[in-house]
Every structure is written in structure tokens, then in C-alpha cells.
């Protein structure tokens, strides 16, 4: 793992966007693995700006998001599809047909999870995977005790994750789904390159576990220690206990 500690969250965000911009410029038809969450909103804003100011071209890219809620339709305000459309896809020159998210409304979820893995393989695998970090150490929605070899599948959300994400659901815990579809830890580890962005004091403890702790399935993000090309971008607040 390489670790870059920026003075603050804003600079960490801009650096993350710059790393992605460079990757797209080097390989215009790259398959990007994308993440959601509050941390990523500013990364996507910076990429939109790069598109407008510096002509960053997304027209040859493919994108694969990590996860989606089960039972939330793509058109709903809370879906990760809506999040991605709002923050990135509708604001840059990418064809919607080149953007992939797991389908949380499918009747045969297991079959669609397999199809998602197949589409990833068909486009040559993820070239650059962007990752956020859950406060319980999840990556995607790989909650504690996910197998390091896990693939795209349906998972039960940890109570802590449902609590962390209630803000997206009118701050009402009853509205937060219990299940999601997520790429597995093994799927994530297949990416040729990984960039993790974790900022703010709330992530300090889990970031230290991820980087310095022992490999453990109880903190999914520790699996990233096994990846040959993983860059962690953070800020002083999140790096406080390293
Ligand atoms: C969410 C997402 C993750 C994200 C993480 C951190 O639940 N499934 O992909 O990285 O939690 O979110 P935030 O940036 O809001 O802290």
C-alpha cells in the first residue's frame, strides 16, 4: 500500500480526482470501478470540472459501480443509480449504456450477480477501482466477516451501516433497506489498481486498522493489504492515529 496524507479533505479529494483523470487520459477506454457515499460526491464534482475545464473525455470509458440497494428502483431518489446519474453520468460525456450498476430490483438476484461478474470480465476487468471506507471497515457493502474471496452477491447490511446511511432515507431508519448487492472483496481485489479515499476524524480508527492492523475478515478493508497496487489517499484528521 502507498499512503498519501494530504493536509485536508479538500486536497485529498482533488488528488483522488487527479489520479482518476490521469488514468483516463492514459487509457481512454478504461473500465472504472466507482463508489458512492458522501466522500465521493466532491470527487465526482472535480471530475465534472475536469471535463468542462480540461476536456476530460469519458466517451470511451466503461463504469462499474460497487453496489446498489435491494428493493430500491433505479429511478428512486435513494438509489445509487440516481446518485451516479446526478453526480457524474448526466454531467459528463459518457453513454448511459457504458455505465453499469448492480440491479437491486431483479427477480433473480443471484443470476444477475453472476451476469455482473461476466460483464466485468467481458470488458477486460476493472482498470482503476475507486473505494470509500465504511466506519465498520466495509468496502462496497462487504460487511464484517465477508470472505476475502467473495464475489458479487446479495448481502445483509450491518445495523451500523444502515444507521450510517439513514441520512439518504429521510433520516428514517425504517426506510433504509436491509439488503444490498455488492461486488465481493475478491471482485474488488481483481482490479488492476485501487485508490481508496478516506477523510475525516470518523474514519481514523478504521483507517489505522486497514493499514496497520492484522488481516482479518472482521474488517473487510484489511484485504487491501494483499493488493499489489493500492493507493490510499487521506487527510490529517483520518491519519491522526497512524
Ligand atoms: C457506503 C457505500 C460505500 C462507501 C461507504 C462510505 O455505505 N456502500 O461504498 O464507500 O459507505 O460512505 P461515506 O463516504 O458516506 O462515509
TrEMBL record:
Any GO MF annotation of the entry: glucosamine-6-phosphate deaminase activity
Q: Which keywords are on file for this protein?
A: Hydrolase
Q: Which PROSITE patterns match?
A: GLC_GALNAC_ISOMERASE
**Primary enzyme class:** hydrolase
The EC number(s) this enzyme carries: 3.5.99.6
Q: Does the keyword Oxidoreductase apply?
A: no
The Glucosamine/galactosamine-6-phosphate isomerase domain covers 13-223
A Pfam family (short name) is: Glucosamine_iso
Q: What is the superkingdom listed in this entry's lineage? A: Bacteria
Q: Which NCBIfam families would you find in this protein's record? A: nagB
Q: Which PANTHER family match?
A: GLUCOSAMINE-6-PHOSPHATE ISOMERASE (PTHR11280)
Query: What protein name is recorded for this chain?
Result: Glucosamine-6-phosphate deaminase
Lineage of the species this protein comes from: Bacteria, Pseudomonadati, Pseudomonadota, Alphaproteobacteria, Acetobacterales
What's the name of its gene?
nagB
Amino acid at each position: 500500500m502507498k499512503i498519501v496524507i494530504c493536509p485536508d479533505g479538500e486536497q485529498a479529494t482533488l488528488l483522488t480526482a487527479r489520479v482518476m483523470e490521469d488514468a483516463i487520459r492514459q487509457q481512454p477506454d478504461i473500465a472504472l470501478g466507482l463508489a458512492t457515499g458522501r466522500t465521493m460526491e466532491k470527487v465526482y464534482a472535480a471530475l465534472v470540472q475536469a471535463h468542462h475545464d480540461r476536456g476530460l473525455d469519458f466517451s470511451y470509458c466503461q463504469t462499474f459501480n460497487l453496489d446498489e440497494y435491494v428493493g430500491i428502483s433505479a429511478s428512486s431518489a435513494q438509489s445509487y443509480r440516481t446518485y451516479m446519474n446526478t453526480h457524474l453520468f448526466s454531467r459528463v460525456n459518457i453513454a448511459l449504456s457504458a455505465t453499469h450498476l448492480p440491479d437491486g430490483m431483479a427477480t433473480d438476484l443471484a443470476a444477475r450477480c453472476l451476469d455482473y461478474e461476466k460483464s466485468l470480465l467481458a470488458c477486460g476487468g476493472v482498470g482503476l477501482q475507486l473505494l470509500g471506507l465504511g466506519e465498520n471497515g466495509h468496502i462496497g457493502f462487504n460487511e464484517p466477516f465477508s470472505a476475502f474471496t467473495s464475489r458479487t452477491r446479495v448481502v445483509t447490511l450491518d445495523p451500523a451501516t444502515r444507521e450510517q446511511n439513514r441520512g439518504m432515507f429521510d433520516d428514517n431508519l425504517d426506510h433504509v433497506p436491509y439488503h444490498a448487492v455488492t461486488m465481493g472483496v475478491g471482485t474488488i481485489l481483481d482490479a488492476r489498481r485501487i485508490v481508496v479515499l478516506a477523510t475525516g476524524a470518523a474514519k481514523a480508527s478504521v483507517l489505522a486498522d486497514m493499514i496497520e492492523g492484522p488481516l482479518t475478515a472482521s474488517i473487510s478493508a484489511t484485504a487491501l493489504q494483499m493488493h499489489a497496487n493500492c493507493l490510499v489517499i487521506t487527510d490529517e484528521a483520518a491519519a491522526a492515529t497512524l
